[in-house]
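Title: Comparing notes on inverse folding

I've been comparing how different people in this forum approach sequence design from structure. To keep things fair, I'm posting one structure and asking everyone to reply with a full sequence. Here's the target:
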């Protein structure tokens, strides 16, 4: 995204140029991406102020179901590009430049590529989704849950959740349980089970 600003640099402070952008932004990280929008260039004391209003179509992958998708990023920014060469004298600008500033090269070419790339990264979604309620993939069989359920939940229950499974019946309803006092005898199955330990501890305290 190169702009020759030699003519603008010969004009007074406040002079402007406007450009429509229609093209492709290419980077090693993302490949070619469609780019469109408007650019305004404003002559300043030290160079050119760029006002950009751009839309970038970013080919992405849904972070849940891994389907390909296209995400449109809106990129708006203002950045000053500092001159490195005095156009009238042909002399290199002697004043120290901000090390983080964007610059206009010695041929008076202003390259927007790096600025757009940086703002593109700041505008991108960290976890893009094909739709807000995407159900993703089953972690066991890999089925796309947006297309329907799978049978993985009907398989064996993790032993760590076995106690909870015993308490819940078919459809998530709680099973009938004996009254809490029914396990105080200590001789039945409930007395020896894991859930009876608080009762056993209470009985031992009673003997002290």
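Reply #1:
Here's my take.
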């Amino acid at each position: 995204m190169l702009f020759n600003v030699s003519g603008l640099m010969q004009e007074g402070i406040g002079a402007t140029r406007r450009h429509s952008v229609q093209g492709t932004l290419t980077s090693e990280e993302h490949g070619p991406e469609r780019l469109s929008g408007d650019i305004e260039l404003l002559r300043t004391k030290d160079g050119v102020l760029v006002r950009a209003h751009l839309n970038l179509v970013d080919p992405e992958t849904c972070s849940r179901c891994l389907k390909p998708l296209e995400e449109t990023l809106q990129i708006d920014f203002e950045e000053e590009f500092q001159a490195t060469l005095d156009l009238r004298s042909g002399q290199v600008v002697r004043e120290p430049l901000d090390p983080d500033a964007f610059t206009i090269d010695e041929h008076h070419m202003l390259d927007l590529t790096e600025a757009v790339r940086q703002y593109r990264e700041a505008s991108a979604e960290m976890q893009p989704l094909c739709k807000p309620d995407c159900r993703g993939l089953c972690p066991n069989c890999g089925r796309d849950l947006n297309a329907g359920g799978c049978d993985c939940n009907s398989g064996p229950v993790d032993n760590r959740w076995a106690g909870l499974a015993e308490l819940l019946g078919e459809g998530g309803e709680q099973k009938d349980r004996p009254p809490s006092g029914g396990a105080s005898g200590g001789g039945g199955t409930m007395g020896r089970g894991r859930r009876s330990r608080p009762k056993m501890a209470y009985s031992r305290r009673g003997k002290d």
